[in-house]
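Researcher: Quick test of sequence recovery. Tokens follow.
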């Protein structure tokens, strides 16, 4: 199991951040992810594997003026 934005989700060996985001809705504007306290940016989504029992927070792109 992993926790994504405080919700429990199924985990499987070798899942990457990109795979996780593809399974979730409304993640097209996700610019970064906090994985167990470490900030992961978009270029690393394809290669960063999620360990079991991970705590993940999705960080959307925010524009300001």
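Model:
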């Amino acid at each position: 199991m992993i926790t994504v934005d405080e919700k429990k989700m199924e985990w499987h060996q070798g899942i990457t951040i990109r795979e996780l985001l593809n399974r979730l809705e409304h993640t097209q504007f996700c610019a970064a992810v906090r994985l167990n306290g470490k900030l992961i940016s978009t270029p690393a989504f394809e290669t960063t594997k999620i360990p079991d029992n991970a705590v993940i927070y999705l960080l959307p792109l925010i524009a300001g003026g």
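The chain has a mean pLDDT of 93.
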